[in-house]
Specification:
It is built from five helices and eight strands; from the N terminus they run βαβαββαββαββα. It is of the alpha/beta class. Strands 1, 2, 3, 4, 6 and 8 form a six-stranded mixed beta sheet that branches. A two-stranded parallel ribbon has the order 5-7. The longest helix has 17 residues. It starts with a strand and ends with a helix.
């Protein structure tokens, strides 16, 4: 059975990006996947310390509440990464998470950029925002997909990027968007 982990970078438990992430997880579960979710905002964790210990093969020197999450993601078959756009970029919670994922990107022997996650994985990036549709916000999702390629083989990363979602519960009220997200979860992870 595939293990799919949703990682939320939103401070709003029932905000738009979290809502869509959970619906995608529901779609994956409907196809038999074992699913779980992590809210980064509920964790106390530090960003990358720039020490380069992980580059030298020693792993990350930081041990905090993000450490077991990274261990789960190392084993997961699929990732769903969700965040709102704040100040023209993904939330700080998700950015700090990605900085800590450096341990997945460096060969401990050569110290070169070399994906460390073995096997093929699947991923969906969810980015939501209140503004009208903007290409630069779509680009934020593309950048995150590029980061995943540094870590391992995630194939064609699906992206669900949606604007015009002003109130925190706007996605929940969009039946078309909910249906699209659930179908996406089943298609990508089923």
């Amino acid at each position: 059975m595939a293990l799919i982990i949703g990682v939320s970078g939103s401070p709003r438990k029932n905000g738009n990006s979290n809502t869509l992430m959970r619906v995608i997880l529901r779609g994956a579960a409907s196809k038999g996947a074992d699913v779980g979710e992590v809210s980064l905002n509920d964790l106390t964790y530090r960003g990358c310390q720039g020490c380069r210990n992980c580059v030298g093969g020693g792993g990350c020197i930081v041990t905090d509440e993000l450490t077991p999450v990274l261990a789960k993601l190392w084993k997961a078959d699929g990732w769903i990464l969700a965040a709102p756009i704040y100040y023209d970029g993904v939330s700080g919670q998700l950015k700090m998470f990605f900085d800590r994922c450096r341990t997945f990107t460096r060969d401990p022997v050569s110290h070169e950029l070399d994906p460390q996650l073995e096997g093929v994985r699947r991923a969906v990036i969810v980015v939501t925002y209140a503004d009208s549709q903007r290409e630069d916000y779509r680009r934020a999702a593309e950048v995150l997909a590029g980061y995943l390629a540094w870590m391992g083989d995630f194939g064609d990363v699906e992206k669900l990027v949606k604007g015009d979602l002003g109130p925190a519960d706007a996605a929940r009220r969009r039946r078309d968007l909910i249906e699209r997200a659930e179908l996406l979860g089943g298609a990508v992870f089923g």
